[in-house]
From TrEMBL:
Pfam families for the chain: GerE, Response_reg
Signal peptide: none
InterPro entries assigned: CheY-like_superfamily (IPR011006), NreC/VraR/RcsB-like_REC (IPR058245), Sig_transdc_resp-reg_C-effctor (IPR016032), Sig_transdc_resp-reg_receiver (IPR001789), Tscrpt_reg_LuxR_C (IPR000792), WalR-like (IPR039420), WH-like_DNA-bd_sf (IPR036388)
A molecular-function term among this protein's GO annotations: DNA binding
Residue ranges occupied by any Response regulatory domain in the UniProt entry: 16-133
Protein keywords: DNA-binding, Phosphoprotein
Keyword DNA-binding: yes
Modified residues (4-aspartylphosphate): D66
Domain HTH luxR-type: from-to ranges: 155-220
The protein's name in its UniProt record: DNA-binding response regulator
The organism's place on the tree of life at top rank: Bacteria
């Protein structure tokens, strides 16, 4: 359902926004910027799991989701994927400090409607928010070009292509989680985690687990 905007000169109902970010100052700053243009109520959640519960309870008109929540570099992407399974029309705007086209492309593939960087000027943040709230899409031109270039083959290079499951496990490995903890969180067997880790080492050219952590961080940062 397309969100109903109430601009300062309009008379529509308040827009209900849920922000999922582990930094409280983000919700405060977001509120100061957006309330200059839109009449809204803003709630926040500090984790993906709490964001999911808050969505189920409040059913907001629009969600603003960070990609990295805590030490998990793809927690926001997993939340977007989960939300999209049950609400295909919910406007979702990614608000992130990362400039990785790899993460941005993955977020868009799983259902984000727009992406805006946290250090963008207020006018651009408002533009992204307004476009997504109205049912549109927003990605700034520079990031859009970087995403497009990911699909362009370069002579002598072969960028690793990871599946969603591989990215999920790699994200938890970069957090420093043990294989047992990863298995418990992902509801899979220890052997599956071990096998995926071997595949990841091969795809990323890592010689050991420590090297895989380093290369995993670089992968998510787009280096």
């Amino acid at each position: 359902m397309q969100a109903a905007l109430k601009m300062k000169s309009g008379d529509a109902r308040l827009l209900h926004i849920l922000i999922v970010d582990d930094h409280p100052v983000v919700a405060e700053g977001w509120g100061r910027i957006i309330r200059t243009k839109v009449a809204c109520e803003i709630a926040s959640a500090p984790s993906a799991s709490e964001g999911w519960r808050a969505w189920r309870q409040a059913r907001p008109d629009l969600m603003v989701v960070d990609l990295s929540i805590g030490r998990n570099k793809i927690a926001g992407i997993r939340l977007i994927e989960r939300l999209r399974r049950v609400d295909p029309d919910l406007p979702i705007l990614v608000f992130t400090m990362h400039r990785s086209p790899v993460l941005a492309r993955r977020a868009l593939m799983f259902g984000a409607n727009g992406i805006i960087n946290k250090d963008s000027p207020p006018a651009e943040i408002c533009a992204a928010f307004t476009e997504v709230a109205r049912g549109g899409n927003y990605v700034d031109s520079r990031l859009a070009m970087q995403i497009a270039l990911l699909n362009v083959s370069r002579p002598g290079t072969s960028a690793p292509r990871l599946t969603g499951r591989e990215e999920e496990i790699l994200g938890m490995i970069t957090e420093g989680m043990s294989y047992r903890d990863i298995a418990d969180r992902a509801c899979i067997s220890y052997k599956t985690v071990s096998n995926v880790s071997l595949v990841l080492k091969d795809k990323l050219g890592a010689t050991n687990l420590a090297d895989l952590v380093v290369k995993g961080i670089r992968y998510f940062e787009g280096d």
